[in-house]
Amino acid sequence: MKKLLQISLALAAASGAAAAQAQDVKAGEKKIAMCIGCHGIPGYQASFPEIHKVPMIAGQNAKYIVAALQGYAKGDRRHPTMRSISASLSEQDMADIAAFYAQQAQLPAAPESVPAAPANVAELLTKGACVSCHGANFSKPIDPTYPKIAGQHADYLTVALKSYKVEKNANVGRNNGVMQGQVKQFSNAELKAIAAYIGSLPSELATVPQSKLRH
User: Fold this and answer.
1) Which of 24, 108, 114, 128 sits at 20 to 30 Å (Cα–Cα) from 170?
2) Cα distance from N-terminal residue to C-terminal residue, the chain
3) DSSP state at residue 90
4) Which SS3 state, helix, strand or coil, does residue 5 take?
5) Average pLDDT over residues 167-195
6) Residues 84, 178: contact at Cβ < 8 Å?
7) Which of the four pLDDT bands, split at 50, 70 and 90, describes residue 21?
8) pLDDT at residue 13 above 60?
9) How is the chain split into domains, by residue range?
10) Is 79 helix (H, G, I), strand (E, B) or coil?
């Protein structure tokens, strides 16, 4: 457990340094035209690599959004659409967009205590040391470059978790030493059970409806 935390903090420090940019919410609002077609439609579903709801990003940690966008741009996160979009953004664009989405939802803070997981899922969460990085309520990660995941769409969480198991695929998969090591312990059915529980928790995340026809 101690070694896992040391690795996690080291990765977080590196990501945080890369994400250090002044953020401008107003500027970010003007740069999200490529985002709202998916992230601005409640319940919108993607079909790649399988059908799932696109993640809620309003209310997410700004530094995590930047880290995710950087990951797509560099190819550490492999997804053709997201890589194309992210590669077109400057570091300042990423920082501004992240700042906008971080404040967009304005939801109450998630409660410190959340409903207990079923016994079988609690065992899986302990095995994966999930709270060590994402917090006891899964809305307070130990570093802001890690995501809030409580209440996130369960089908998206399942797809995201499975992506850490994918190797040698140019269009699918994610590179992260900690997550890859943890996720490979579990079957896809176990990952789905973990995602279902986490997705059922009180959340600080939302999808805020937005129209492409903005003035």
Assistant:
1) 128
2) 51
3) -
4) helix
5) 97
6) no
7) low
8) no
9) 11-199
10) coil
Helix (H) or strand (E) holding 46: strand 45-46
pLDDT in tens, 35-73: 999 999 999 999 999 999 999 999 999 999 999 999 999
Q: Are 119 and 73 in contact (CB under 8 A)?
A: no
The mean per-residue pLDDT over the stretch 92-103 comes to: 98
Q: What is the pTM of this model?
A: 0.88
Question: How far is Cα 47 from Cα 57, in angstroms, rounded to an integer?
Answer: 18
What span, in angstroms and rounded, lies between the C-alpha atoms of 111 and 139?
A: 9
The DSSP annotation for 156-215 comes to HHHHHHHHTT--S-SSSEE--HHHHHHHTTS-HHHHHHHHHHHHTS--S-B-----SS--
pLDDT in tens, 147-157: 999 999 999 99
Look at residue 164 in the predicted model and tell me its pLDDT: 98
- Give CA–CA dist 62/154, Å, rounded: 21
Residue 138, both tokens: 């899964």
Q: Scan for tokens 């696109």, then name that residue.
A: 54
pLDDT given for residue 23 in this prediction: 77
Provide the CB-side half-sphere exposure for 107 (13 A, CA): 21
Contact 65, 107 (CB under 8 A): no
